[in-house]
Every structure is written in C-alpha cells, then in structure tokens.
C-alpha cells in the first residue's frame, strides 16, 4: 500500500514537468555563443583564407601603390603584421623587398581610434636600384607611387 501514494506522487510530478513550456534560453545562449565565437575568429579566418592580403594589395594598387605581400595577419588583440612585401617599381632592374612589417597596434586599437600614433617595425630590407640621370630609379618609383597614393586619399584626383 505504501507503493500506491508514491506512484501517484511521481505521476503528478511527471505530469507537471511535461506540461511546462520549454524555455528558449538554451538555444539563445548557444546562438549567442556561436555568434561571439564567429566574431572573435573573423580576423583569423580572413587572414588564413587570404582575403585580407588580396584586399590590401588591391586597395593599394587602386591608389597607385603597387605592392604585393605573401601574408597578412591581424587579430583583435594581436598586432598587424605583413610578411613578404615587394614593391613593383617602374624599372624592372629595381627591386624592393621587406621581409616583415609589424604595426604595434591590434585591430581593436585601430578601430577604437584610441591611438593617434603607431610603432612600425621593419625587418630585413633588400633594395636594388640603378642610377638614371643622377637619381635612383627605385626612389623615383617610390616617390611617384606615394604621391599618387596621397593625391588619391586627399581627393585631389577626383573628376568633377
């Protein structure tokens, strides 16, 4: 006889639990967690797939600065680093190669605008140039490309 009240008690509890609406909280928490993980991993994924490198190269080329890079890496909290930078000079005998350029700021710092100056480290620079008319052809190409880039950025070359 003691078993009968226990069974009724259990069935009442089971009925109450089954009658509750399921809370969307676990799905919401899982969805927000996945979104957070995607946001944290986005810079790494963009760098590993080469999207960042190709966007940087095309951005600079569109503005008259013909650079190529083997690898670009950036993270929310790790500094921007560009490896294997090569400048394409007008003169085929001129050559500029930089093994590594590191900017001492992370993506978070760059986007927040908290810093108005950046530390830039450049490692292993190789340069080859010919003299033409008493000037280094590589320097002439660099100056010309940088001037074109600056004009583009300031809007001086816009057609009205």
Structural account:
The chain has 160 residues and is of the alpha+beta class. The radius of gyration is 29 Å and the shape is elongated. The strands form 2 sheets. Strands 1, 2, 3, 4 and 5 form a 5-stranded antiparallel β-sheet that branches. Strand 6 (131-132) and strand 7 (135-136) form a beta hairpin. The chain is built from 5 helices and 7 strands.
List the helices and strands and how they pair.
Elements: H1 3-19, H2 25-48, H3 51-62, E1 67-68, E2 71-73, E3 79-87, E4 95-106, H4 107-112, E5 120-128, E6 131-132, E7 135-136, H5 137-154
Antiparallel strand pairs: 1-3, 2-3, 3-4, 4-5, 6-7
Kindly state the percentage of residues in helix: 40-55%
Secondary-structure content class: alpha+beta
Count of discrete alpha- or pi-helical segments spanning 4 or more residues: 5
Sheet with most strands: 5 strands, antiparallel
Low-confidence stretches: none
Q: In oligomeric terms, what are we looking at?
A: single chain
Gap from first CA to last CA: 97 Å
User: Mean of residue pLDDT?
Assistant: 77
Order of helices and strands: HHHEEEEHEEEH
Tell me the fraction of residues in β-strands, as a range: 15-25%
What general outline do the C-alpha atoms trace? elongated
Describe the structure in brief.
The protein has helices spanning 3-19, 25-48, 51-62, 107-112, 137-154; strands spanning 67-68, 71-73, 79-87, 95-106, 120-128, 131-132, 135-136.
Brief descriptors of the model:
5-stranded antiparallel β-sheet; two-stranded antiparallel sheet; 24% strand
């Amino acid at each position: 006889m003691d078993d009968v009240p226990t069974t009724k008690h259990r069935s009442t509890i089971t009925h109450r639990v089954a009658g509750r609406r399921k809370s969307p909280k676990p799905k919401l928490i899982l969805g927000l967690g996945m979104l957070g993980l995607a946001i944290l991993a986005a810079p790494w994924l963009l760098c590993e797939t080469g999207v960042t490198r190709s966007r940087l190269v095309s951005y600079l080329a569109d503005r008259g600065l013909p650079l190529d890079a083997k690898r670009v890496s950036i993270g929310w909290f790790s500094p921007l680093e560009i490896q294997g930078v090569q400048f394409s000079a007008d003169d085929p005998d001129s050559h500029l190669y930089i093994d590594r350029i590191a900017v001492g700021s992370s993506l978070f710092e760059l986007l927040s605008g908290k810093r108005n100056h950046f530390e830039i480290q450049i490692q292993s620079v190789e340069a080859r140039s010919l003299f033409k008319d008493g000037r280094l052809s590589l320097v002439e190409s660099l100056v010309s490309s940088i001037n074109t880039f600056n004009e583009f950025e300031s809007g001086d070359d816009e057609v009205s």
